[in-house]
Design a protein that fits this description.
- It is built from four helices and no strands.
- It is mostly helical.
- Helix 1 (7-16) packs antiparallel against helix 2 and helix 3 packs antiparallel against helix 4.
- The two termini are 53 Å apart.
C-alpha cells in the first residue's frame, strides 16, 4: 500500500512545532494505522475488474437466454393463435353452411306450401272469388311472417357469429398483450 503523504516530513513538522521525536513518531504511527484500517474497509467493498467482467458476462449470458426463451415463447404463441384462428374460420364456415341449408330448406318448404295452397285453390274453383281472396291474403301473411322470421333468425345468427369472432379476437389479443 502506498501512503500519499511523507511520514518523515510530518514527523519533522511536528517536532518543529514543539513535539518530541517519540511523540511525533507515535502520532504518525497512529495516523498510518487509521489510514490502513480505512483502506482495508474500502478494499473489502471493492470488486476487481476481472470479477466485474465475469459478473457482466454472466448477466449478459442470462439476458441472452431470456431473449431466446421469449422468442421461442412468442413463436409458439403466434402459432397457437394462428391455429385458433383457423379453427374459428372453419367453425364460421360450418355455421354459414348450416344457415344457408336452413334457408334453402325453409324456402323449399315455403314453395311446397305455396304450391299446395294454389292446387287446393284450383280444386275449389266453385268458391273461387271469396276463398281465393282469403287464401291469397293468408299466403301473403304467412310468407311475410316467414320472411320476417327468416330475417330475424338471420340477424340473430349474424350477431352470434360477430360476437363469437370479437370475443375470440379479444381473448387472443389479451393473451398476446399478456405475453408482450
Amino acid at each position: 500500500r502506498r501512503l500519499y503523504f511523507d511520514t518523515h516530513a510530518l514527523v519533522c513538522l511536528l517536532e518543529a512545532n514543539g513535539f518530541t521525536t517519540q511523540q511525533s513518531e507515535i502520532i504518525v504511527s497512529a495516523l498510518v494505522k487509521i489510514m490502513n484500517t480505512n483502506l482495508d474497509m474500502i478494499y473489502k467493498d471493492m470488486v476487481t475488474k476481472v470479477q466485474q467482467e465475469i459478473a457482466l458476462q454472466q448477466v449478459m449470458s442470462h439476458i441472452g437466454g431470456v431473449k431466446k426463451d421469449m422468442i421461442i415463447l412468442e413463436k409458439s404463441e403466434f402459432s397457437a393463435l394462428r391455429s385458433e384462428n383457423e379453427k374459428i374460420k372453419l367453425e364460421l364456415q360450418q355455421i354459414k353452411k348450416q344457415v344457408m341449408d336452413e334457408i334453402t330448406k325453409v324456402r323449399a318448404d315455403n314453395k311446397l306450401n305455396l304450391n299446395l295452397e294454389k292446387s287446393r285453390v284450383k280444386e275449389l274453383h266453385a268458391q273461387q272469388d271469396r276463398a281465393l281472396t282469403q287464401t291469397d291474403r293468408k299466403i301473403d301473411t304467412e310468407v311475410a311472417d316467414l320472411k320476417t322470421m327468416l330475417e330475424s333468425h338471420k340477424l340473430d345468427n349474424i350477431k352470434y357469429l360477430a360476437g363469437s369472432v370479437f370475443t375470440c379476437l379479444t381473448v387472443a389479443l389479451g393473451f398476446y398483450r399478456l405475453w408482450i
